[in-house]
Every structure is written in C-alpha cells, then in structure tokens.
Amino acid sequence: MEQENQTVDGRREIASRNTGWANAVAHKLTEWDVAPNTISLMSIFFSMVGCALLLGNYFFDLNPYVAYILFAGCVQCRLLCNLFDGMVAVEGGKRSPNGDLYNDMPDRFADAFFIVPVGYIVGGIGVELSWLAALNAVMTAYFRWIGAYKTKNHYFNGPMAKQHRMAVLTFASLIAAVCVPFGYDKLIYMIALIIMNIGLVATLINRLYLMTHAEKQ
User: Fold this and answer.
1) 13 DSSP 8-state letter
2) Neighbours of 159 (CB within 10 A)
3) Which of 22, 40, 136, 182 lies at a CB distance of 3.0 to 4.6 Å from 200, suitable for a disulfide?
4) Is the pLDDT of residue 212 over 70?
5) 54-101, pLDDT tens digit by residue?
6) For the segment 111-142, what is each residue's pLDDT rounded down to a tens digit?
C-alpha cells in the first residue's frame, strides 16, 4: 500500500499551498493579523451554515437548487480554512501553543455538520448511513493520531481522507442540484453516502496496515 505520511510536527501535503494565489491570500491574512486559530474555527462556522442549508431544505422546504449549490460552496470554504490556517501559522510565523488543538478539533465537528444532514435529505436508511460516515470520519483521525503516537508519523492516506470526503460531498451536491427536476437528488446523495462509507472503511484498514507495518517499510 502506498504510504503518504508526515512527521508528527508536519502537515498534510496540499498542492494548492504552493500556488501564487494561495500565498497571496495567506500573506494578506498575515498582514491583517488574522490568527490561524480563528481561521481554524471558521471551518466550523461554514460547516454549520452548510448543515443549516440542508436541514432548512428538509424541514422548511427551502429552494433545493440554492441549498445544494450553497452547501457545496460551504464545503469548499471549509477546505480553504484548512489551507490558510496552516499557511498563516507556519509561513506567516503565527504558531500558537494550542495550534494543534485548533487545527484538528474543529475538523471533527465540521465533518459531522457536513455529513449528517445529507442523510436527512435522503431519508430512511440514509440517516443511519450519514451518522455511520460521520463516526468513520472521526475514526480516521483517531487512527492517524494513533499512528503518530506509535510511529512518529501522521498517516494522511485515503482513499477517503478529508479532501476526498469533501470532494464527494461537493460533486454530489452539484449533481444533485442538476437532478432536482428529475427527482434524483436524493438518490445522488444516497450514492455519495455509500461511496463515502466504503471509502472510509478502506481508509481505516489502510492506515491500520501502514502503522502496524511501519518498521518493515
């Protein structure tokens, strides 16, 4: 199994971190004295907005086109928060003693706020699948930290790591918006939950394998 790991004080490899636009935005945030911990907490804000959009559609019949598209936007904003908090902290020289906590804990809440409401849109067994996916998402982080404790490396491997989960939710939401007139939006979200759960279980197995075979590699 291919290994993608970082040392305990390292970060997940993100290709966009080396782009000009990302560095320009991170530089501005640093100039404006925006704390990286604040940026980390904003990921919870965007996830709560996304959650409210889908639950609003479920309980109050909000416009599904608007709800699904804005939900996808919130998912991407969460990923931007995950990008810029680290860039401001490391490249911007604004590390804090509790930075690791702020970097990791908001993500656990954000995953749940984004994943669980999808199940309520689907209805039926979709509710259970969404809660299962949220639990599995937390477990992937738990396995990563066990790996860090055991091997001094963080294993960010997929196939359903955070960026993959968010990609599934983004594409599913955009496709669901297109499928609303045909009544297939719930089916699209159901497929997304199934893919996510299968991928998350595979991710847990992969990370467990990597951490238990680290000394042999």
Assistant:
1) -
2) 12
3) 136
4) yes
5) 999 989 988 999 999 999 999 999 999 999 998 998 888 888 887 788
6) 999 999 999 999 999 999 999 999 999 999 89
Phi, psi of 127 (to 5 degrees): -60, -50
The span from the CA of 144 to the CA of 140, in Å, is 6
State both tokens at 173.
């939401």
Token match 């902290």: residue?
89
Q: What is the pLDDT of residue 98?
A: 79
| Structure tokens that stand for 74 in this block | 């919130």
φ, ψ dihedrals at 154, nearest 5°: -90, 130
Dist CA 207 CA 145 (whole Å)? 10
Question: Cα dihedral angle (109, 184, 195, 81), rounded to 10 degrees?
Answer: -30
Domain membership of residue 111 as a residue range = 5-216
Is residue 155 classed as helix, strand or coil in its secondary structure?
strand
**Buried-state track 123-133, b at ≥16 Cβ within 10 A, e below 16:** eeebbebbebb
DSSP for 60-95, written as a single string: H---HHHHHHHHHHHHHHHHHHHHHHHHHHHTTT--
Q: Is residue 93 exposed (0-12), middle (13-18) or buried (19+ Cβ within 10 Å)?
A: exposed
**Separation between Cα atoms, residue 206 and residue 159, nearest integer Å:** 8
Name the token pair of 60. Answer: 């109050």
pLDDT bracket for residue 216 (50, 70, 90) = low
Q: What is the pTM of this model?
A: 0.90
Q: What CATH number should be reported for the domain holding residue 91?
A: 1.20.120.1760
pLDDT of 191 reads: 98
